[in-house]
Amino acid sequence: MATALKINGKTHQVDLPDDVPLLWVLRDEVGLTGTKFGCGVAACGACTVHIDGEAVRSCQVALSDVWGDVTTIEGLGTPDAMATIQKAWVDHQVAQCGYCQSGQIMQAAALLAENPSPTDEDIDDAMQGNLCRCGTYPRIRAAIHDAASKLKEA
Amino acid sequence: MGRIGKIVRRTFLIGSAAIVGGVAFGAYYVTRPAANPLKPTKGETALSPFVLIDQQGVTLFAPRAEMGQGVKTTWAALIAEELDVDLNDIRVLHGPAAAAYYNSALIGESLPNKGYDISNFQHNLGEALGVLAKPLSLQVTGGSTSMKDGFERMRMAGATARETLKQAAADRLGVDRTALTTENGAVIAPDGTRIPYTELAEAAGKIEPPEVALRDPSEWRLLGKSIPRVDVPAKSTGTATFGIDVRPEGLKFASVRMNPKLGGAMNGFDASAAETMPGVEKIVDLGTGVAVIANNTWLAIQAVEAIDVDWGDAPYPSDTDALFEHISKAFDDAPNSTMRDDGDVDVLPEGATEITADYTVPYLAHATMEPMNATALYTGNKLDLWCGNQAPTLIQMRVANTAGLETEAVDIHTTYLGGGFGRRGELDFGEIATKVAMAMPGTPVQTTWSREEDMRHDYYRPGAMARMRGAVMDGKAVLIDGKVASQSPTQQAVKRYTGFSGGGPDKVLVEGFFNQPYAVPNYRMSGYISDLAVPVGFWRSVGNSHNGFFHETFMDEMAHAAGRDPLDFRIELTKPVYAPAAGCLEAVKEMSGWTGKTPDGVGRGVAMAYSFGTPVAQVIEVVDEDGTIRISKAWIACDVGLALDPAIVEAQMISGMIYGLSAATQEEITFADGEVEQYNFPDYDALRMQNAPVTEVRILETQKYLGGVGEPGTPPSMPALGNALFDLTGKRARSLPLNTQFDLLV
């Protein structure tokens, strides 16, 4: 039986077993490959998406358990119309290999939605589940602070 | 053994000693130009393998693996600098696997010199030998060589294309070429008329390219400046295509399991449970492993894990202790190399104090963020392979062999790499994906490894041991006698790539050991190879990754024994030999406000390592916070000769350091029953936001040659941290990782 999912504002009918994680529905069924597979055990954060605005590890949410509207990195902004947080990522030249950055950005976006003025400690707490093997942490931190101030100006 | 095997063997002889024969041999091949791999269709003109122009615009080719180090941007900038195009207005592509895209800097690195001390003759010899990479088709990204390789050649590619386009315009206008200028993708006529390159390309393609001189660096618009990376917008919006993201029409999804007893046989398997699982389309017997093709990657992973496999034993001692016992036995044999032997280390100078120390570091995994994967489409007489890889021509030859095709029938599509660190220079992921796709001809199949499969089937940084003996007198080091033992990634890799065993002195095993710029009168450094079958490979900074820890921890121990400040002790020893290294040490001294004294609860350590042509000094500060030790700050100074893009150099220095600190603090691959005991990130983690230090970088440009930047940040990080912990606690770490000895914030 097909399951209906609302992803980035659009409804998709998905015909896969109930226990397939949202990550693999997005990547292999819906064709939204911006959300990445890193570990499959919620240890790296590369698969982070929003469900009703909350940052979740999509590798741990079964298809039948998706409780709300899904937003992926593609729904946050596009190369021609970037979200403020994405623009900050570009301004600070954060990405190196770039593989973890979709998850980093989705996690950071959820942090800023909840806490418009995060301290360094708030950033440590919110971002420590997101692994980056290139070690881009200093620029991620700078980009989050910058996005926070730009969002306040807006 | 094929032709390539023979040629590669000659090359490695060059690396060892037989230089003259090698050059003569190479001269025959290198006089023949490599074919241009770009096949322009109607309306396109390929002015060289690196510049293609059509009606839509200019495309530059950067045929090096973009794995985060920024090579796509700086490579394109080298061409654009001379071609006069704006990076925002052009496309940059990786291009196909091709001999024309050989790495000219890789072979010169294998010459048996120390690097920092080479004469102009040796430097030129290294460059001359570099052309050997063309007949060898060595299109490889590694060894921090891309900028050394591309610096002259790519500017020349841009300049030649520019002058050819100008000649086409001159012919059209009936004026002399010297009367014309170029600007932002167009030739400018004397009357100011702009003729876009796109209108001139077809005519330019028929003109013999003129001789050109390169512009003076004072005229540079792009090089030497921090410019926006061409890959960053896509990587910030989820639109960059990594290997795991390719989606050819009709794609199926597979996953694989190989023997966790690495290199062991597969005695048989029972896939009856997997066959009926949801989404499963086919079970594939790979001979040495199994794969499942399904309609979804996760379903393929579930099914492949449900296969009951009878695995054969590992061809090496089954646990970590037995492996290191075996490695230590290598010290009993003759050394494989003694690439430094100054003075007489057998005689202790009168009045000197002798010290000794033994060190051990573990096997390490690369753990790239993107697990190994590749996508293949096999049709019977043609093979397409999509993957992030560091060696397109090598992988092309390998999978052609796997599929029983000529290399010309194999197209390699190189995507972005979700991390490389040396892992994606291997060929296994491409070979496995090819075998899987051959089970379903005509259908593209993407084979993705689970994280567990990736971590437990790596080509590991080998575990290594060192035995150090030294002597100090009057506050100076007067003797160092060092021995390092480990498996040889180079010998194993040569065998993997070519099928024959490489021999001779292994420079890579002792890099960072024999070639450190310290004035010590009695100085002997030897390498011992331990022959074990654990798969080992090239891990960011390779031999330097363990030798940096051995050499620079021992340097600290000697400074301590000499009663000297460890930073001043090093500056004194490097200054007479290689001023740029001393300059880096002086820079971190100033940046960190180093006084040699730290308050209670704070420790500082320093290390300097010269690798890939770049000296790097680091000071690391640790703080005791209620019994837990945090790495709070770091200062890095490097001398790269010329910083082609300072923001990228800075990023690579921090990245290399964090990669090293991640390993030093907590990473270790161990074995039990012949299998790797670490499965996933909870068993093999890295630094994260909360425990990465606040870091300041200073880039110096005093040395004569262009140094590498992707790897040199790694070697000094591990000893700098260990030395800081000694400063804080008085406890000397002679093995890694450190979280087994200290209560670190990890």
What does this structure look like?
The complex is a heterodimer of chains A (154) and B (746). With 154 residues, chain A is α+β, with helices and mostly antiparallel strands. Chain A folds into two domains: 3-75, Ubiquitin-like (UB roll); 77-153, DNA polymerase, domain 1, CATH 1.10.150.120. Helices cover 39% and strands 13% of the residues of chain A. Chain A has a three-stranded antiparallel beta sheet with strand order 4-3-5. In chain A, strands 1-2 form a two-stranded antiparallel sheet. The termini of chain A are far apart. Chain B is an alpha+beta fold. A seven-stranded mixed beta sheet of chain B has the order 10-11-8-18-15-16-17. In chain B, strands 13-21-20-19-14 form a five-stranded mixed beta sheet. Chain B has a four-stranded mixed beta sheet with strand order 1-2-3-4. Mean pLDDT of chain B is 91; it is low at 1-33. Chain B is globular, with a radius of gyration of 27 Å. Chain B has three domains: 33-102 and 137-235, Aldehyde oxidase/xanthine dehydrogenase, molybdopterin binding domain (Aldehyde Oxidoreductase, domain 4, 2-Layer Sandwich); 243-313 and 372-448, 2-Layer Sandwich (Aldehyde Oxidoreductase, domain 4); 320-364 and 460-740, 2-Layer Sandwich (Aldehyde Oxidoreductase, domain 4). Chain B has 20 helices and 27 strands. Chains A and B meet through helix 1, helix 2, helix 3, helix 4 and helix 5 of A and helix 7, helix 9 and helix 19 of B.
Gross morphology of chain B: globular
What's the name of the CATH homologous superfamily of the largest domain in chain A?
[2Fe-2S]-binding domain
Strand order of the largest sheet of chain B: 10-11-8-18-15-16-17
What is the arithmetic mean of pLDDT of chain A? 97
- Kindly report the spatial arrangement of strands forming the biggest sheet of chain A: 4-3-5
The largest contact between protein chains, plus residue counts on each side, is: A-B, 63 and 65 residues
CATH class of the largest domain in chain A reads: Mainly Alpha
| SSE pattern of chain A, N- to C-terminal | EEHEEEHHHHH
* CA-atom Rg of chain B in angstroms: 27 Å
Distance, first to last CA of chain A:
45 Å
Number of strands of chain B: 27
Structural class of chain A comes to alpha+beta
**Number of E-state strands of chain A:** 5
CATH level-1 class of the largest domain in chain B: Alpha Beta
The CATH architecture name of the largest domain in chain B reads: 2-Layer Sandwich
Largest sheet properties of chain A: 3 strands, antiparallel
CATH architecture of the largest domain in chain A: Orthogonal Bundle
